[in-house]
Design goal:
Rossmann fold, 17% strand, Epimerase_deHydtase, UDP-glucuronate 4-epimerase, 316 residues, NAD(P)-bd_dom_sf
Length: 316
Amino acid sequence: MTKALVTGCAGFIGSHLTQRLLSEGVTVIGIDGFLDNYDVAAKLRNLAQIGSHPAFTFHSTMLQAQRWKDWLEGVDVVYHLAALPGVRNSWGKAFTDYVNHNILATQMLLEACLQQPKPPTVVVSSSSSVYGTMQGSFTDEIAPLRPVSPYGVTKESMEQICQVYVKAYGLRVTMLRYFTVYGPRQRPDMAFHRFFRQLMKGEQVTIFGDGQQSRDFTYVADAVRANILAAKCAAPGEIFNVGGDREIKLLDVLAIMGGLLNVTPKLTFQSGPAGDSKRTCADITLAQTRLGYKPQVPLEEGLRLQLADMRSQAKG
């Protein structure tokens, strides 16, 4: 791979992926429309971390601008991370925006890739939200898709659009279902960022639900590695779970966070939001066997690194 397009390059995962590609000598075209779903200043900081690398060209615009000649010419791999994230905000009138950014923009991108003289490989970021609340032990990629939020519905629909282009045209598209990614630069609306911020200020930590909900948390560098492995190894139409080192309850995560800060978290509980899954747990066997993916950063170390990054930002 010599040239890549990263959509959503100023976002949480996208900025880390862009840096990794540049460090490996890849020329990167980056696109980000700076959606205001959270503080744009955070995205600008992410972009500043990438810096003015000579092999990086940045376009501040939405995919809907469809400047494909500028973006796709000579590109070997497209990493499609641009999306409107978040379960809680996807209800009501906002659903139109989720359809626009998660489904329609993806279809436009796939159509444009198809029109290239040599269509690039496309690695699309999906979500464990397509499964809804998981049952049984670990969930593999053939488990039923039962999203419990409008956001999850748009991610499932996005996957279906991708499969249509694979089956009809043989477009080389693979999809990665992330299980709650965390780490430095995590979005400020996400739980770990919010928990650390409240703990650092000595405030009560607000938990939505009873804290017994469990998650499979994925460190951001592991998610980045999965993207690069998928571009190299995946076959068209393949879907992979991208998870962390274990499933853990939210209350147990807070105990680890408190230990890192030498504080005992003071907790307050609110009713859980509609569409919030009670349990996620990734079976990553397929990613291990097909891609060679294995999470390398344990939760305790990942939380330490996220805390260090947040402290550094607070000083800056």
